[in-house]
Specification:
The protein is mainly α. The chain is built from 24 helices and 2 strands. The chain has a two-stranded antiparallel ribbon. A hairpin with a 5-residue loop joins strand 1 and strand 2. Helix 9 packs antiparallel against helix 21 and helix 21 packs antiparallel against helix 22.
Length: about 450
């Protein structure tokens, strides 16, 4: 049974999902006239523009963007880039940039449609998401697809990988067998529970993670957005300074590193098949990083106080430029300058940790602090996504129970092996993307009309 679930998840989450997100995104990119390239300056101007006043329990459009970026900027921006370089070489980074531009187009559609077709909750707050777009724009005939998205969202947004891999990274970075054995607290709990010292440490990490997440998410969308608005710029700035240090100390190697990204992106020496493989690896990595087309952004931007669909879409499309563009580029430069890709079976995060540790004094610990912030911020936003899906299915009052369940699962996922749970989560994640992309394509004319009307003024 477990093998069958894993096989199904690997099949659906492989090239079918890739071609849906990238192929569909390319179609939308050209259909509306390459909005990310033509109106990127306008999108940046929206950040400086005075935001729509947010009422009680509402967030601004910029806070929605920060919360979306908080969810997408995670370990994938570090470990995922390392994996892309290992599998496809430096040229994969170029195709990550291409995919980021495509993702910006998809996020633009999500922002426009979720603002135009959102609903009002029982407490008067704006609520949005793919399920509300489907119900209001496509009608009862497509209600089954809205329910599919919401059910998939309940499980797809559980932070199995975040909790497990964060705990794994903390265990590998901050513990040694001698250190665990010398800790009285860990030794006492291990003796009482019969668990190993490592398992006890992972359990303590899980409890700590769950407590921090609970302190934020139980405060509702306003607290999540406030923390994200403060945390996201700060952690990106710290990460930028770390990479800047690496660039300065390896300045003579920078031209060659940047050049390799472009030369290897169009490397015809190995044949057309190899070139296509490099492009697929880079684009697929970026698609998994920025969540464009999955529908999570529709939930967050649908809850903002912004009233103008095109303005919300312009702000929403900046997300992939930050996570798949800026943060992934910073990681790529650092790894190309001082990363060691010669080892066999080396995981992405291990490559990054070694690279930063050798290039910066105490760099591995600074990187782990950044990874910790990245992973925690993802959990904050994903709890809100799951709660909104639960509210759509069972109502606002019962949806509160989902938040408690979400918090408790963080402890469980921190301790148990991943196994089939990850495959199930990946499968549900794909089941969110299919209804979202189908909806965006079916409603594409509405977005093109709104775009022409807005910029024609």
């Amino acid at each position: 049974m477990a093998g069958s679930i894993t096989a199904i998840a690997d099949t659906i989450c492989g090239y079918p999902l890739f071609f849906l997100l990238i192929g569909g995104g390319l179609f939308l990119f050209f259909y509306t006239g390459m909005v990310p390239l033509r109106y990127f300056r306008h999108a940046l101007a929206e950040l400086r523009r005075k935001q729509q006043a947010a009422g009680r329990d509402e967030i601004s459009s910029v806070q929605a963007l920060a919360s979306v970026v908080a969810a997408t900027v995670g370990m994938g921006n570090i470990a995922g880039v390392a994996i892309a370089i290992v599998m496809g070489g430096p040229g994969a980074i170029f195709w990550m940039w291409v995919s980021a531009i495509v993702g910006m187009s998809t996020k633009y559609y999500e922002g426009v449609l979720t603002t135009r077709y959102r609903s009002t909750g029982s407490d008067g707050r704006p609520v949005g998401g793919t399920m509300h777009i489907i119900d209001k724009a496509l009608g009862p005939r497509w209600h089954w697809m809205a329910v599919t998205f919401a059910v998939a969202g309940l499980f797809g947004t559980l932070c199995i990988m975040n909790a497990n891999q964060l705990t794994e990274a903390l265990t590998a970075t901050f513990t040694t067998p001698e250190g665990l054995a010398s800790s009285r607290a860990i030794t006492s709990v291990a003796a009482l529970s019969g668990l190993s010292h490592v398992a006890v440490f992972r359990l303590m990490c899980g409890i700590t993670i769950a407590a921090i997440v609970a302190a934020v998410v139980l405060g509702g969308i306003r607290r999540i957005a406030s923390v994200a608005t403060w945390l996201v710029p700060g952690m990106v700035a710290i990460y930028f300074l770390m990479v800047l240090y690496i660039i300065v100390t390896h300045i003579t190697e920078v031209p060659a590193a940047i050049g390799s990204i472009f030369t290897e992106a169009f490397n015809f020496r190995a044949g057309i098949g190899a070139l296509a493989g490099i492009a697929l690896i880079g684009a697929r990595r970026a698609a998994l990083v920025n969540d464009a087309g999955v529908g999570t952004a529709t939930i967050m931007h649908g809850s903002s106080a912004g009233k103008e669909p095109v303005r919300e879409g312009l702000i929403a499309m900046l997300g992939p430029s930050i996570d798949s563009g800026l943060v992934c580029t910073l990681t790529a430069l650092a790894l190309l300058l001082c990363g060691d890709f010669s080892g066999e079976g080396v995981k992405g995060l291990e490559i990054a940790t070694r690279a930063f540790g050798e290039a910066i004094p105490m760099g591995q610990y600074l990187l782990m602090a950044v990874v910790l912030c990245f992973a925690m911020s993802s959990m904050f936003s994903y709890s809100f996504y799951g709660t909104r899906c639960a509210a759509y299915l069972v109502g606002e009052r019962r949806a509160r129970h989902y938040t408690v369940i979400f918090i408790l699962t963080l402890v469980v996922f921190a301790v148990i092996p991943l196994g089939v749970a990850v495959s199930l989560c990946d499968l549900f994640y794909a089941l969110m993307a299919f209804p979202t992309m189908i909806t965006l394509i079916l409603l594409r004319r509405h977005v093109r009309t709104a775009t022409r009307t807005h910029f024609g003024k």
